[in-house]
Amino acid sequence: MGYYVRVEPNVRIYVEDINPGGNKTILFVHGWPADHNLFEYQFNQLPKRGYRCIGMDIRGFGKSDKPWEGYHYDRLADDVRGVVDALQLQNFTLGGHSVGGAISIRYMGRHNGHGVSKLALFGAAAPSVTRRPDFPYGLPKEEITQLIGQTYNDRPKMLENFGDMFFFQYITEPFREWFFQMGLQAAGWATAGVATAFRDENVFEDLGKIRVPTLILHGVHDKVCLFPLATALNKGISNSKLVPFENSGHGLFWEERDRFNRELTQFIET
Fold first, then answer.
1. How confident is the model at residue 55, as a pLDDT?
2. Active site amino acids
3. The whole model's pTM is what?
């Protein structure tokens, strides 16, 4: 079931609500530059186990409205709050991939984890994607600046290149095209705007505000959000558990989908 949630007078967020009658709810926040369809291989399986799976397209991506502004962590976290309030979600698991993980962490800090009973982070773009004087991990700032420049000059080529570094395991040509087309659904300015956010912003101050059990799943071969980010999250979030995925890059939800689904459901059940 798909519908729209109005989060600002002129901005609607698209929501896909699978198995609304499920007795356990997971709200998925996708990563850059995709949309909720990134979690197809969770949506195929988890409802069979009684889960209600909700996928939202962040503003500017997928079927959501594509306003000119609002592509920073505070506003993106506020959009999550808008969805949570509209759907009256309580006692749910918040799951975020890549920049969706950073948005989820900001939600926990900015909105005091409203309604969230457990947090799950998948290849999260946190606490900082870029290297900083006090954080020597992550990517050089210039690399992301380059990515933003490519977005403005030849976005299809940028998406193709990004797809090549996204997965560690072999992907078929049709699968590559599926991933590519997802990226094309976004607005160019939104793609650049969110990339600018994950280049310039961080969520260090939000980590200490997380009070719920937290699962950190991260591909060892991740070239987008390097594995030391997961170690930093594990240290910064009390009551967190880190599970390395030895055969995955940034796309662990597909590359090791059976294990991913198992780890996620075990975490929620316990």
1. 98
2. 98, 222, 250
3. 0.98
